[in-house]
Amino acid sequence: MATEPVRALEAVHRVNAPELPLTGIRVVDLSTWIAGAYCTKLLADGGAEIVKVEAPGGDPLRKWSSSSAVIPPGDDGALFNFLNASKQSVVVDPDKADDDARLDELLRSADAVVWSHGPELRDDVARAPDGILGAHPHLVVTSITPFGLDGPWSEKPATEFTLQAWAGGLIGIARGTPDRAPAHVGGQVGAWLAGAFAVIGTLAALRRGHPGGELVDVSMLEAAATCLTYYPVTFRDQLGHPMRKRRYVPTPGVEAASDGLVGLGCGTGQQWLDFCVMVGHPEWMDDPRLYLERSALAPTIAAWAAERTMAEVLDEASAFRIPNAPIVNGANAATFEHFRHRQTFVTNPRDGALNPGPPFRLSSTSLRPPTPAPRLGEQSVLPRQRVQTAERPRRDLPFSGLRVLDMTAYWAGPFVGHVLALLGADVIHLESATRPDGVRLVGGVPQTEELFWEQGPIFAALNTNKRGLTLDFSDPRGADLVRRFVTTCDVVVENYTPRALDNSGLDYESLREVRPDLVMVRMPGFGLDGPWRDHPAFAFIIEDASGLTWLTGHPDELPLEPYCLGDPNAGLHALIGLQLALAHRDRTGEGCLVEATMVDAALNITAEQVIEHSAYGSFVTRTGNRGPMAAPQNLYQAAGVDEWGRDDVWVAIAVATDEQWFGLRRALGEPAWAMEPQYNAMDGRRKGHDTIDARLQAWCRAREADDIVGRLWDAGVPVARVMLPHRQVDLTQLDFRGFFEEVDHPVTGTSRCSTLPMRFSRSPGPMHVRHAPLLGEHNVELLSELGLDPEEIDALEADGIIGRSLVHER
């Protein structure tokens, strides 16, 4: 219970506090665990008042440590203190009628509720999302569940581990060699990603306007499918084959220097050519096959790195503009000069542990400085009148009426515009005919094919609902047209390296001269300042520099880059920063620069590593496919072959509770080995994990994967078939929820594109309304809006300022 004087909610509401983007918004947190806590943490950072409602026993996260550190009685865990700073805690006993009535009063005073399954209070039917919205129809109710609130799997047991398996995220793009089991992405990333999506959904629903009242249904499975794979269904539909048929380790990738680990990568053809020169093997440039298959070169590259220190490898790579980063972990993260320069880590006001700072920075408004996380029941339930925010026009979709200039490429930046476009914004994707969005060319379509640049499946999946404009802003005439076009836009999003835009005179200070209330989102890899400012950043490098790589892989091997979520995670957090800036503009009419650094976003979802080391001296590292949430937890090979006839079929099993262990025993037929008393508790199962693994492997090897899944799910055990990424579309749960929609494209025909991992009750219709734009498809339409006549537009095309073809660039 509370160890400090009880304070009423009204007393801690600082009436004279400076206006923050979400000032006046009250959110009731009816969630447990990381996803809901991270959602409400980011809302609290933006200025919302968060009231955390707990049962008498408190949120289990209060006593959680991923390294099993002992948390003294009366104290709360360091992760809880990070996720719950600036919140308030009230205790509601569901067995007390007075408490139930006070909770209803609290809900009447709120604007939004964040909900997830949890003990006692949250499992009451009346407190389920539908029940809450029915009793309080003004509320935005955001639910976070493993599979979503409806569908054939909605009540099935699941864990972070099994959800990654179902989503295709265990195999991913590059997740280990095929001679052993694939490796999951460590660190409970799915929960953090779902929390970020929940923020976006909550703010989008609030933005929609009055009258309020909406259910936002977030699916953790769909979040994993979105962020842990690279649009594999669209890729397969459009090109007729999957992105890859076998797992592999990128070369170059994680390399061991003489004094530590570094990450190197080649995201473009030019970077590969430069890399060949850097390592002293220019002859590699003459073999075009090596651009796609370099595994045979791994020993030579490893020997080159081993002869150098980390600093020497990183300095040489930077000189050659090769993407690079040290392999960051919880012990070394705070030691790097770049993070010290940018004050990336801050001290928690409750326990003094190091925490990552907010994942974005806003120029014209503030984020809330964190105050100590509340003790259990520190506040009493004294609801206030709901603050009436300024009336906003009701919108058919949350971002209807918003125009966005999308000056981005590849995945992280376009992902921001894609979410906005799916939710109603008018998004114009800017490219040039000489330097198009590079993701148009991902997929290996030969440049001898007609319109090859229109056949990139990733571009097709990531840019639906947008319009396309080409302008070469390296030419002064093109830059001037960009500035003229900005006058018609509410938002500009860009993800070039910092110097690219600054050198073109299209930085924020320049653009606000023509559009004073402009909101601009800049998405540099490492920030607009600091020693790593100009380092090229691809998803894998951001993963290296944030701890995502360190936690992924088998403990007896070098870590593996997840090779995926560094990009979409950056896009998610940039979008949250943008929503806060828009809320500020709605309130004040003032524009804002949002600096949404990719590595800061990644450091937030790997916060446990730094927190555990700082608070407890614990060094969290990769454990293969085991994890802190369950025992046993692992991948087990099943009988049968995959679609290519290979003996490579796996199931994921994760026993997170004693009750699930008893269910597993029953499903196995209660063999003598499983009846050992020490296995009845989690600690005993951890100690006997090797023995349990061997027994489960023998049992699974004799059975088909679907049979294993059926038996264990029926017994209440979290289990999954390890799906090939392009087989996401075969999942009945995703089909039921309409996660994929068919999109017709004038060049490539019909393919299936994923939507968003959340459903809005007030927007039941399809999300995709048009295909991704052809190169320069809307040039005439958009330039005519600026007053250019047909002759002027033709002259721009003749001079190469605009264009609709890459033929002259073959």
What does this structure look like?
Residues 1-17 have low confidence and may be disordered. Helix 2 (33-45) crosses helix 7 (189-207) and helix 14 (412-422) crosses helix 20 (566-588). The protein folds into four domains: 7-228, Rossmann fold; 254-335, formyl-coa transferase, domain 3, CATH 3.30.1540.10; 403-530 and 566-606 and 770-809, Rossmann fold (3-Layer(aba) Sandwich); 631-717, formyl-coa transferase, domain 3, CATH 3.30.1540. The radius of gyration is 26 Å and the shape is globular. By secondary structure, the protein is α/β, with parallel strands linked by helices. The strands form seven sheets. The chain has a seven-stranded mixed beta sheet with strand order 4-3-2-5-6-7-26, sandwiched between helices. The chain has a seven-stranded mixed beta sheet with strand order 13-20-19-18-15-16-17, covered by helices on one side. Strands 8-9-10 form a three-stranded antiparallel beta sheet. The chain has 29 helices and 26 strands.
Summarize the structure.
It is built from 29 helices and 26 strands.
Largest beta-sheet details = 7 strands, mixed
Q: Return the structural class.
A: alpha/beta
- At the fold tier of CATH, the topology name of the largest domain is Rossmann fold
Q: Tell me the fraction of residues in β-strands, as a range.
A: 5-15%
User: What would CATH call the class of the largest domain?
Assistant: Alpha Beta
For the largest sheet, list the strands in their spatial order: 4-3-2-5-6-7-26
CATH architecture level-2 label of the largest domain: 3-Layer(aba) Sandwich
What is the CA–CA distance across the termini?
A: 70 Å
Mean pLDDT across residues = 93
User: Quick one: overall form?
Assistant: globular
In CATH terms, the superfamily of the largest domain is: Crotonobetainyl-coa:carnitine coa-transferase, domain 1
Number of domains: 4
